[in-house]
Amino acid sequence: MRIVVAGGGTGGHLYPGLAIARALVRLAPDVRPFFVGAKRGIERDVLPRTEFPHDLLDLHPLYRTRPWQNWRTVTGAARAWRRLGALARAERIRLVLGTGGYASGLMLAYAAAHRIPAVLQEQNSFPGLTMRAFSRFAREVYLGFPEAALLLRAGRTTEVVDTGNPIDPPPEPRPDRAAARAAWSLPPREGRVLLVVGGSQGARAVNETVAAWIERGLPDDLHVIWATGRANFAALERYESARVRVRAYLSPIADAYAATDLALGRAGAMTTAELCAWGIPAILIPLPTAAADHQTANARALADAGAAEWIPQSELTVERLDALVRGVITDPVRLRSLAVAARRRGRPDAADTIARRILDIGRRNAARS
């Protein structure tokens, strides 16, 4: 069964597709996922290192602030449409999975025009333009945040399902916390551990504030695991100490999650999905330049659910950060309440849940044809 996964541009749109594709193959070895993405997106570097066949097309986003460059979007789409036609003739596509971003729009348009069943996976609480445009044509839409349903124009027969975001789930049994802390050379039971993470590239505003906070003096009995991002590591590795562990990137990240009491970082969909799956409360600083300010919407949704605290980047200061961290880590009831709410929002089995639903649609479609 050939299933095309269309999405990319950023990791937030690509990695959910990879998680679902691997779940599909694990559950049904006869499924053959094929990825369609953009030459200029992150998939250019990631997909060649995966096990999946793929085709990278000359796709471009809409240049909203530079409309004179939209000729690239139009001409790239025309060439890509012909490539998609050749792919469809060579492969009998049973279903298209769109995971968002400009890299998925053309494939979803082709599916709608040729009556190929399509499903969508929306990661954020504020749906992107592609998801809003194609939700009415989809058989099913899988939501990372249930709040997104209010902003979608689903079709009459579209089923919108709150599945959570597809991630690599925490291992079972969970790693022992004392052992995980010992792996970081931190006290196995005393004090609290704060995880600071801003993604593979780091978060400059967060990093600068954390550096100033460390220089001023951390709260007593607080230990920090700090993933600075590769671009920032050289300037920040000097903050390594008995109470601070500084790394460029955390991969694998399981021991860090297992050791953590509280996290500090951005409000990207996949990061927050992982934190909730692990039951880790968070202080979120949304990236203010994210498309449609969707990270702020994510942070607000989790704060409203009692699973996180959040600070706008414009209000992030050493004093504000210090007061909020101290207020959480010194209040066991508050910390426990945040952790329980985070766990309640977690969907560690989202990839398998989505894969099973996709397989059901694909098999029903095959039976009719």
Summed up, what is this model?
This protein has 369 residues and is α/β, with parallel strands linked by helices.
Could you characterize the architecture of this molecule?
The protein has 369 residues and is of the alpha/beta class. It folds into two domains: 2-168 and 349-368, Rossmann fold (3-Layer(aba) Sandwich), CATH 3.40.50; 177-345, Glycogen Phosphorylase B (Rossmann fold), CATH 3.40.50. The protein contains 14 helices and 13 strands. The strands form two sheets. It has a seven-stranded parallel beta sheet with strand order 3-2-1-4-5-6-7, sandwiched between helices. Strands 10-9-8-11-12-13 form a six-stranded parallel beta sheet. Helix 10 packs across helix 13. It starts with a strand and ends with a helix.
Q: Total domains, how many?
A: 2
Work out the helix count. Answer: 14
Order of helices and strands: EHEHEHEHEHEEHEHEHEHEHEHEHHH
Q: What fraction of residues sit in β-strands?
A: 15-25%
- Which CATH architecture of the largest domain would you pick? 3-Layer(aba) Sandwich
- End-to-end Cα distance, whole Å, is 13 Å
Q: Which regions have little confidence, pLDDT < 50, spanning 5+ residues?
A: none
Whole-number mean pLDDT: 91
Blueprint of the fold:
Layout: E1 2-6, H1 11-27, E2 32-38, H2 43-46, E3 54-57, H3 70-90, E4 93-98, H4 102-113, E5 118-122, H5 129-134, E6 140-143, E7 159-162, H6 177-183, E8 192-197, H7 204-216, E9 222-227, H8 230-236, E10 244-247, H9 254-259, E11 262-265, H10 269-278, E12 282-284, H11 294-304, E13 308-310, H12 318-329, H13 332-345, H14 350-368
Parallel strand pairs: 1-2, 1-4, 2-3, 4-5, 5-6, 6-7, 8-9, 8-11, 9-10, 11-12, 12-13
Helix pairs in contact: 1-14, 7-12, 10-13
